[in-house]
Amino acid sequence: MQTHEARLDALRKELARRKLDGFVIPIADEHLSEYVGAYAQRLAWLTGFAGSAGAAAVLADKAAIFVDGRYTIQVRDQVDERLFDYRSIPQDDIGAWLAKNAAAGARIGYDPWLHTAGWVHAASKRIAAAGGELVPVDGNPIDAVWEDQPAPSPAVAFVQDDALAGRSSAEKRADVAEWLKDKEFDAAVISALDSVAWLLNIRGADVDRTPVALAFAIARADGTADLFIAPEKTTPELLQHLGNAVRVRPRGEFEAALAEFSGKTVAVDPAFGVAAIIQALSAAGANVVAERDPTILPKARKNPVEQQGQRDAQARDGAAVVKFLHWLSVAAPHGSESELSAAARLQAFREETGLLVDLSFDTISAAGPHAAIPHYRVDEASNLRIDPGSIYLVDSGGQYRDGTTDITRTVWIGSADGTHAPSIEQKDRFTRVLLGHIALARQSFPPGTSGAQLDVLARQYLWQAGVDYAHGTGHGVGAFLAVHEGPQRIAKSRGGQAGTDQELLSGMILSNEPGYYKAGEYGIRIENLVLVEPRGIGGAEHAALGFETLTFVPIDTTLIDRDLLGAEGAAWLNAYHADVRQLLAPLLEGEALAWLETACAAI
Predict the structure, then answer these.
(1) Best label site of 261, 407, 473, 537, fewest CB within 10 Å?
(2) What local confidence, expressed as pLDDT, does residue 540 receive?
């Protein structure tokens, strides 16, 4: 098996053969997906870095890897510092690093199928200013030296029934056609995998944790569409479902098909349309317009069928999580369980529903100091025992045909003899996180309000104690699609950061997940999913929206400072636990039901 040093050497030789002085390697596929298939894990193959976001730049005599603050520790554990310098984004910029470190006249390669046109434009300017040139490659040079590179997934695509989708593909395509006609566009390229899946009511198994099929689509102003997908991924059932108005074409024909739009006006989403698409359309003489994918907002606003599907999935998933928490309360105090064994047991409880399709992301099973790493992922090397007398955090979710779940619970692991108790500080921090969660869950707000305007509600009690958390408070969630779905989010506004300025609209689903993390000691996060809904307010002078809570699982009262929680906080928690008991008790029995009753007792 090649070492990473040997792989880097092989890449440099391939670059030299192509007369390139450098190359940029992102974690990306042709659809700019958050999670990518094994065939597209080029950065992991080259460097050993297993995170979900990052990039590397390689020159003949030096290389650097760029990651954000989530991966500061992980990148140092996984990537050899002798081979790659560690760089932090957004402070460090790949284009700037290349401009500074590449020789004058350097030709730096990039794969136009893995970058946005905006990135290409910015990086080109940086490199050109230093006397270099950014050059698109024909075929990724890593693919040329990756001898055992996995093939793209061969899994067949399947139909998401209208009874689950709530609207037919024909209806959705008609809406997109109206949008195109209103804008006087001829077509829109739909390249995000979850957008293709939503528009055509199809799903797949080509990306771990996200039920999508590798495909491109082009929606036209007459309500028809072209689907570009590998022929072996289709079935008679799928073709019958798509009907005559959707032309099914081999995925390999997609780039050539863009030449058919000479003289036409075509919309491409700059966030998901890779540079190669825009370059091919422009070369063909098409008028390319940068516009948000017309499926993004309709996909984010769940229809009544999708909303009910999410409620059903949450109840089923909640019962599985309760069974897990009961098991954990019995097993963990003996000190015999680990992060890996707990994650496996939780997955088993979800699988016992008989309806789990996949997890919605890799379970964050974090004991003690690992709970202080918000995006921790356990493996054999990092696996810790869950110690009695400590905090354990588990962030997990499931993919079901009727909904996608995401829940975090932080619990106190007692000891078999009952001698251990949380510290005053741990109870203070947990209660402040809970108070922020409650404040956001209860808030009403006028139409036009963005997630950035609500974010402070979840942080206020932590700020009062001089502490904070470094991640967003909420992300959008799909309907049997991506667990992280835009454009909505709840987070601090950072100069127009994606999603923070998007107004929250009725039907959108988001997470509510404030947290607190003390490096090297413990971490806390409480996460439920919520649905934006109309809110009636007596005497109100304007319309209002609010949140319907969708996730129902007990919150650990052992970690609560009752005085700090106060009467209003206790009233919310007691009402929430009464709802948990009413919803989940019929789905449980025996010891798990008894545990639920105790966990939901009023405080």
Answers:
(1) 537
(2) 84
